[in-house]
Amino acid sequence: MMDFFIAKNHNTPDPAVAVPAKLDSSAKPVNGKRVKKHKVPTIMVTPPTPPPEPVFSGFNYLPMELLLKIMKQISVDDRLACGQTCHRWMEAAHNYLPFGRRIIYKFTNINFCDYEPPIKTFLEAFRIFPRIAIKSCTFYGNSQFWPTFGEFVVELTIKNCLIRDTELLFVLENVPNLRQLKIEQCDELFRTWHFTKRLTCCESHFVLPDLADVSLANNDFLDELHFNKLMTLAPNIAHLDISNCFKMVAAHRRVAMVEHIMRFINMHQFQLQTLNFSGTLAIDDICLSTLSMIDGLSLETFSMTFCDKIPSAIIDLLRRQPDLNITHDLEWKVGRHPIKAPGFISFLVRQTNLVHLDLTSSLGITDEVMELITTCLPKLKTLKLRRCILVTDEGIMNIVNLQELEVLDLSNCYRISDHAMYRGVIGRKVKNFKELYLCELPTLSDYSLIQVTLNFEMIQILDLSNSPNAATDATMQYVNYYLVSLKQLYLHCCTKLTDSGLTGIDLPVKPMITWDKEETFPLDRLFKLRVLNLIGCYRITDLSLQEAFKLAELKELHLARCYQISEAGIGVLAETAKALEFVDLSECPNINDNCIEMLTRSLKRLRTLKVNKCPLLTSACLEIIGHNCSYLKFFHVSGCDRVKNPKKRLAHLPSLKAVYVEW
Questions:
Q1: 102-117 residue pLDDT tens
Q2: For residue 508, is the peptide bond before it cis, meaning its omega torsion is within 30 degrees of 0?
Q3: Which are the contacts of 547, defined by CB distance < 8 A and separation ≥ 6?
Q4: What is the number of helices (H) and of strands (E) in the chain?
Q5: In this structure, what DSSP letter does residue 104 have?
Q6: What are phi and psi of 111, to 5 degrees?
Q7: How far is CA 58 from CA 61, 81, 231, 595, in A?
C-alpha cells in the first residue's frame, strides 16, 4: 500500500528526455597520473501527470436536446414543476418557445392599469405572453401593456370584464397577430357601446388578418352594429361562436339579430368551418332551412339546441321510406305532391363533411333523426346527445356504423337500455375511441360497462356519474384490469361502489379467473389516471386510500361526502399521491387539523383545497396552511364554524387568490 502511495505521488523522470552525462570536474591527479573521470548517471525527467478531467454527472447536466424531448412528453403543470429543479431545467421549461406558447397567463379580479400590480410588474418583464385570459377585471384607460407585448399575443379572452369600447379597440389595435378572440359575458360593454353614426360601425382603420376564431358567447345585448364592427376586424374568420346569447332581449330583437347573423354566414359561406349556436334562442327550423340552402357552406363542427317538433307526417314518411332523397328545392318527391323537408333534416343531409356534432339538450332529436345522422354523416368523430330525452333504443342502434367515432355522450338519455348499448354502441372493437359519457342512466346495468371495458381498451375518459347500477365492485375490477389508458374517471354518486371494488380485497365473487386462479386488481393499476371523482361514494373507507391510491400522476381528487374517510387514510394518501394539485374533502365529518397538516406538508404542488362543512376543523388549520402552502391559490372553507377570519389570517400568502367562506 505504501509503494502504491509513493508511486502515485512521486514525480518520476520522463524516459523520453535524458539529461546528458557530465564529467566530474573535481577529480585531481593521483601520483602524477590523471584519474579517469566517471560519468554521472543519466536522470530521466518526465512532466507531472495532469489531473483527470472532471466528469459531470447528474440530471442537471443532461443535454438540452434530451431535456426538451422529456419535457415534451409531460403536461404543462409537470413541466413548470420541473423548472424549479435547477437553472438549466428552468431554462428548458420556460425559455423554449413552443413551451411558452402553450402557457395561458390568467388575470382575475384585478384592476388592469399601469400603476397597480400585477400589470405594473409585467411591464418590466423580459418574456412574451402569447395567450392571455382576463376574467372579472376592470380596465382603467389604455395600458402600455398592449403596445409592449401585443405583437406576440395570439389568443385573447375577455370574460365578464368592465371595459369600454374605446379601451377594447385600443387593445385589438395593438395585437396585430391575434388568431383567437373571445369576448364573453360582457353585457355592460355592449349596453354602453353607442355609435354616433350608423355607418361608422363598419369603418375601421385596422384589421386582424390572422384572426380566424371569434367567440361572442353569453352576450345578451349584442346588436347588429356591434356584430358588424367586430366582424370587420376578422376578414378571414373560420370559427364563430354565438352560443347562449339574446336571452334577455325582446323576441323581435332576437329574431332580427339571428337573421342578421344568417346573412353574415351567407356572405362568408366558403370560409366558415365552425358554427356554435348552443343555447341561443330563435335558432329554429326556419334558420336551419336558410343554412341548408347555402351551397358553399361546408362545416366541420356544428353545435346547437334544436327544440322544434318535427311533424308526425314527416316521421311516418321517414319510417316507411328511409331512402328518400331530398331534392335541390329541399323537398321529397312523393306522388304528385312534393313534401317540404324540415330545415333540420335538410341541413343534416347537406353537411356530409361534419366531424363534430353537439346536440346537447335538443328536445327535437328523435329516433328518425338519429338514423339520418348515422347514415348521412359518416365522418363524425364527436357526437354529443346529452339530455336528448326522446332518443330511445331504436335511435342509437346504428351508432356502431360510425367507424371514426372518438367521443360519444349519451348522458341523461334515460330511455336507453342494455340491449341497445350492446347492439348499437359496443358492437365492435374500436381502437380510436377516447371518451365515453354515460351519466344518469339508471337503466344501464353492469353488463353494459363490462362490454365497454372489453371493447374500448384505449378509452381515456369515462364518466359514469349517477349511474349506480353500472358502476359496481365487479365492473370496477374490469375497469382496473382493461382500461389502463384511462386518464379521467368520474364515479359521482355511484353508491354501490365499496372498498372491495377499488382494492380487490374481500370481493364476494372474483370476476377474473386466470388458469384456474382467481385474481383481483386495485385501482392504482390505472397508472395514467389524472382525475378521479368519487363524490358521494359514502361506502368507501380508509382501506381504499391505504391500498389503492398509489397513483403517481393523479392531479385532481374529489372525495366529498365520503363520510368514513379519516386521519388514517389521509396520512397514507398524502405520502403516495404527491402530485395532487386539487383535493376536495367537503362534508367529510372526520377531517381534522391533523389531516390538513399531513396534506399540506406532503403535497407541495397543492393549488386548490376544499374542506367545506368539515366540523372538526379549527383556526389552527389556518396557521398550518400559512406555513406549509407556497402555491395554494383557492381555499374553500364554507360552513366550518370553528374556523375564524380565514381571509385575514391567510392574507400574507402571495399565491392565494381567493378564500371562499360562503356556501
A1: 789 999 999 999 999 9
A2: no
A3: 503, 505, 522
A4: 24, 26
A5: E
A6: -95, 115
A7: 6, 18, 55, 36
